[in-house]
Design brief:
Order of helices and strands: EEEEEEEEHHHEHHH
Radius of gyration: 23 Å
Shape: globular
Strand order of the largest sheet: 4-1-5-6-7
Structural class: alpha+beta
Number of strands: 9
Strand content: 5-15%
Length: 277
């Protein structure tokens, strides 16, 4: 393969991207994307892009909502992970029992890695030397460089999450927490984070329990008197009586979850030298 062009070249599977003035369809096996403003850049889903401001400029992104990025000097070289990701990966391995339980929703270990590294990781099966290589100072966070592609679109995250979602996921794992879950390693997760996770879990369970209580009581009455139109008025009455409590529980649960998310995001802001919330 010849010399790489400048930043803006994307290699990846067939995908449709929306740019500022036009759409550009990438052909299977790779294509060219014009340089565009980062705020309008596409959401990456396992693509490979040149980012010339990084020490190893070929960046391998993981699948959508993945976590670890690979970096290589060229497409002929096997990508490495940044050394700062090693603690997060070590904790991910320790969370394997939880990941196995979540495979029904397609959340497996391989979904955390770029495709080229996921294959090595899956074939490894703990039988020999660790298949992934770590090198210091490779990633966007270590170089205070904003990723060219986005983690998610605007409907799924704030501008900061869109830009640094992979590194936020790593911040969760670095503290022994499965990203955006209530699962954690008690021997790794700091006490203050454990306390907030348990508070968030409790509030969400209280909200769900209240939802189920209202639905169950209404359903039981409807079954007991299926031809009695009064069950509809009973449902409306129950809804009116309990609606305030339900809304309060939902708001409490949402505030607790958002506060916890912000706490992990602030870890990445600190790493980047940005102002924390």
């Amino acid at each position: 393969m010849g010399e790489y062009p400048k930043k803006g070249i994307v290699f990846g599977t067939d995908a449709l991207y929306t740019c500022r003035y036009r759409c550009l369809r990438l052909q299977q096996g790779g294509g060219i994307m014009p340089s565009i403003d980062t705020e309008l850049s596409p959401v990456s889903d396992g693509h490979v892009i040149i980012e010339s401001d990084l020490p190893l400029p070929v960046v391998y992104y993981p699948p959508l909502f993945g976590t670890f990025l690979g970096f290589a000097p060229d497409r002929r070289s096997t990508p490495a992970l940044c050394a700062c990701a090693k603690p997060a990966l070590a904790n991910l391995l320790r969370l394997r029992p939880i990941l196995r339980a979540r495979r029904v929703v397609h959340e497996a270990r391989r979904s955390y890695f770029p495709l080229i590294l996921a294959g090595k990781f899956t074939a490894w099966k703990d039988r020999s030397g660790f298949p992934l290589v770590f090198q210091p100072g490779l990633c966007h966070r270590c170089n205070a460089h904003k990723p060219t592609l986005r983690y998610c679109d605007a409907s799924q995250g704030t501008p900061f999450v869109q830009s640094y979602g992979w590194y936020i996921n790593q911040a969760y794992l670095r503290l022994g927490v499965l990203p955006y879950r209530h699962a954690y390693l008690s021997e790794v997760c700091p006490p203050d984070y454990r306390a907030e996770i348990e508070t968030s879990r409790r509030l969400e369970l209280e909200f769900l329990a209240e939802c189920n209580r209202i639905l169950d009581s209404t359903y039981d009455f409807a079954i007991a008197a299926p031809h009695n139109g009064d069950w509809l008025s009973r449902f409306r009455s129950a809804s009116e009586d309990d609606f305030g409590r339900l809304v309060e529980l939902r708001e409490q649960a949402s505030r607790a979850r958002e506060h916890l998310k912000t706490k992990f995001e602030d870890l990445v802001r600190q790493d980047l030298g940005l102002m924390v919330h």
